[in-house]
Amino acid sequence: MSEKYDVIVIGGGPGGYVAAIRAAQLGYKTACIEKRINKQGDPALGGTCLNVGCIPSKALLDSSWKYHEAEEAFSDHGIGVGKLNLDLDTMLQRKDKIVLQLTGGIAQLFKANKVDWLQGTGQLKANKQVAFKPLEGDEQTLEAENVVLAAGSVPIDIPVAEVDQQIIVDSTGALEFASVPKKLGVIGAGVIGLELGSVWARLGSQVTVLEAVDTFLPAVDQQIAKEAMKQFTKQGLDIHLGARVTGSKKNKNSVRVTYTDGDGEHEETFDRLIVAVGRRPYTEGLLSQDAGVTLDERNFIYVDNQCRTDVPGVYAIGDLVRGPALAHKAIEEGVMVAEVIAGEHTQVNYDAVPGVIYTHPEVAWVGKTEEEVKESGEPYKTGVVPFAANGRALAAGESAGMVKFVVDEKSDRVLGMHVLGPQASELVQQGVISLEFGASIEDLQLMVFGHPSLSETVHEAALATDYKAIHVAQRRRKK
Length: 479
Description:
about 475 residues, alpha/beta
């Protein structure tokens, strides 16, 4: 007789493990299938994000920024450190320790919530049956009232630069360099490419970023994006837009890359090359031919706004479905699906999902860009205030960047908030709350913000939409 569950989750990443825990909290007999083996050779939960994505990259971003500050900024504060020494091995060990702590924590949460962690692969078959192939042993057939597909995504491969995880690497390999490359190439100026390029540039690499698109960060408000590119260029990132890679040839310790742009064909040699052109849904082996689940032309699983597939009782979340490939979006979808199964009233507000690039300064946004609102033809107003006008930012030596609001001129509703600057990932949550509660910009204008704080720039930007900002010069509003 096959094992029966109320809920089976296939995939133990941010969306999957959260869905499993929430389902168990709601009283359902729950299992989570996850095949990952970590670099220590042990089964691991947490998916790409915790093991080789969000968490380890942020650990290296923080470590590399501290190194950069010690090298470049401490003297401004009257702090002398003498000759710096970079111990890359210790830096990587610290990263791995954080990963193990967090992934081990999920395993403990599974035990506490009585979630069965099935180590191996899962495939959805007809009638909500799941073929489970353990890491060791024979395949088993499991039955479930509900199945949640949460297999995540993998890096996109490009034939002109085949990844070998030695000379040419993807985002995973870029976290494991044994030494700092003297010359580093990055294909892709998106979130991953900019973050990883920043890490190694801070540690001493000469970094060249090749981006095929002509516009820098096209999904970001362009006033913010243009200033961000200026800041990254100052930091040493050599960013080439409209640069399409046409080929690569590996040697023993380097790779020669050819690319074309508006000026013709070019060739550069790098010690290492990172391919960061995006991610694709991981559906290989996930669905049997008779599973009944519909995929679109890009291999995403079709779902409604509550992540139901075409098969009753089968859901799909996270990077497998429409929308941005973000861990926090997957997490909230995991919670939503578990609560939908339980018959609760719930919904993810997809209009209020923030995006963040953890460079320095950080880039963060939520809601609509000025370009999107302008294209709609609806009247709008904006307020922009630089961190250079903020006392807390100046005291911290973090004066680069700005806060920007985009507001509906008729209703006064906040449509979007965009931040380039210190702690942008934290500050943008004020915009998330504003959108979630349908706040007017006047609501923010009338609030009291602590002084001195970075959040005062949020307040000033809100005031600036109506020419009320105090600490920046604005033209008088016509009466």
